[in-house]
Amino acid sequence: MLSCLVDDAYPLLNPKGDGYGALKRLSNSEILALDLFQQLRGVESERSFLRDAERFFAHLFPGVVGLHPSSFHRRLRKLRRFLEPLRRAVLGELVGDPETLVVDSTLLAALHPRQVK
User: Is residue 19 part of a domain?
Assistant: First the structure.
């Protein structure tokens, strides 16, 4: 769904943005969708994110297979100015009702019992 929303919104922000699109393994909107997806997943490392994207999402982004992190980063740097307007346009549709709250109930051991005195 994220990829479809980005694919629809990006041409409105940059109508001439996909020049030479047939020569590229990933379109500009796919690069931006992957970056937004990386941010939503909270993954810091582009290298590990691209490795996970290749393993689990290659059927959605076939051009990510074998993509070198430096070329991904180079293209993303050129598209960075469209990222914030795109985020504003797309994330409103992805985020649920503002009255809905998600509570993470995973239990974590904060202190070992022997450490408490």
Answer: yes
Terminal alpha carbon distance of the chain: 51
For residue 111, tell me if it sits in a domain: no
For the chain, how many structural domains are there in total?
1
Q: What is the C-alpha to C-alpha distance for residues 79 and 28, in angstroms, rounded to an integer?
A: 8
Q: Which DSSP category does 114 fall into?
A: G
* Cα separation, 34 vs 28, whole angstroms: 10
Any domain includes 117 = no
pTM of the model: 0.73
What does the pLDDT look like over 62-111, one tens digit per residue?
A: 889 988 899 999 999 999 999 999 888 887 777 665 555 555 656 666 66
- Asked whether residue 114 is domain-assigned, the answer is no
CB 67 within 8 A of CB 34: no
Q: Per-residue pLDDT for 115 more than 70?
A: no
**Which domain covers residue 93, as residue numbers?**
2-97
Q: Token digits for 45?
A: 């490392």
**Biggest CA-to-CA distance, the chain:** 66
